[in-house]
């Protein structure tokens, strides 16, 4: 029998995908009717179910943010590996159990009379709840959990939850329909029992559900936050309170540590992992910080893209960035945060991965794209970049590469400012644009005879023009400065200089079917592209795809080598496991062990060498 056909395996609303949230509609309608139109539901149950569910989402988000915020959690990470994209996909619908429990709570209110007309508070009920939770409910959970580890049930149901070795708060909710029915019933035993004995209260339900979630998410956070000193001072507590490490051991050595909240039952059942306390003692002291071999210094593009970071919306950042409707209400919330970051924030670590045993990290300068073009803000931005370079140098980082605006020519001369200002740097400063140029040039059709180039006198535009003219390709360079054009033309070998042609209007390219766009263009300029034209680009942010009769290239990027581990975040609009070409260029610089700084003008003679080195290390052109 296929596991896919197992009884109660799939969720009933799985086919709805993201539309499953419509199922909250009846609860919302009932709550609105009760509060605004004087409905009959005296205790406002549906409203409380929705409010409690919202608070449970908030509890999850706080744990997800904490566990993925490097500055807070990196020293106490239990598993140093990062989650992968396949884990993101498996755990995409982690919140199905919240929907299930909202339905079951509504049914309980309808069928069980002691869940109606409850007072706000009843201290006696909380005492009964605690006794029932620590006794019958925990015993039930322990034996049910052990049953699910028997081969028959494990292979058909429980293996989904254990597919994650790197635990995340979402892992807590990732399980099959049957498992969550059982978990919900066990979870409800203390509430039903306490309420049946006359201890029901709304406060009891809120406290129990939120504390239950808090402890579950804590155990799956992959961060050891429980100090060892409390167990040393009060030894019995180690049998009453579990720790994230205790539960992580269950996922790595699955025949041990079955009881999530009270290790006492593992002790009584002889299933406690003998290494639990020794490992917890060493883990709670903190670990030595890993020094990255390579750092990519990125920046924020715009307000909404600032939400595309791992510690905010993990599922969202595991897909290429796009402006979704659910982001729009967050726009006014981000603005004051952006202003606060402008005043106080320093560079922070967003994510990292490993390649051939070497740690690579992405650091973010907390500045938005528009700020780079405000004259009075530029000195402050350069100071932030310089501080990041000095921090990397002090840590022992070998290579730091600069993202698009962090190496803007007008800002710091493509990184030249820092190399000149800090002559004793051990860390190599890299703009990575040699590989960017190589990617753009290798995207062109081999039979192309003529191209139209905007941003022609920029760092990339200059080297693209010089490379193409050497291949006998006519390059129409859009520039209004005759002096800058002549300067670039003089760099070309004399026999190829006539292949570089200065143009000052877009009309000149109305018959050219290959455009390379290095300067942002709107619809008016795009109208001059002929039908069937392909527009390559190296402009940030990318141009809008406004012509249906033309095709558009993406920003230059490369697919990372297959050996990269711990990657679960998409880099801005890049597909999964792909990065911008300048990022790949920095990684390549590190892998090759090159000792030179790559700043300022691009050496046209190194383009082919860099391209071949990238392919040798397993980088692939983006599909």
Automatic annotation (TrEMBL):
Location of the Very-long-chain aldehyde decarbonylase CER1-like C-terminal domain: 451-621
Protein family (similarity comment): Belongs to the sterol desaturase family.
GO molecular function: iron ion binding; oxidoreductase activity
Predominant place of localization: membrane
Protein name: Fatty acid hydroxylase domain-containing protein
InterPro entries associated with the record: CER1-like_C (IPR021940), Fatty_acid_hydroxylase (IPR006694), NAD(P)-bd_dom_sf (IPR036291), Sterol_Desaturase_Related (IPR050307)
Record's keyword terms, sorted: Membrane, Transmembrane, Transmembrane helix
Gene Ontology cellular component terms for the protein in this record: membrane
Ranges annotated as spanning the membrane: 185-208, 325-345
Membrane topology: Multi-pass membrane protein
Signal peptide start and end residues: none
GO biological process, one term: lipid biosynthetic process
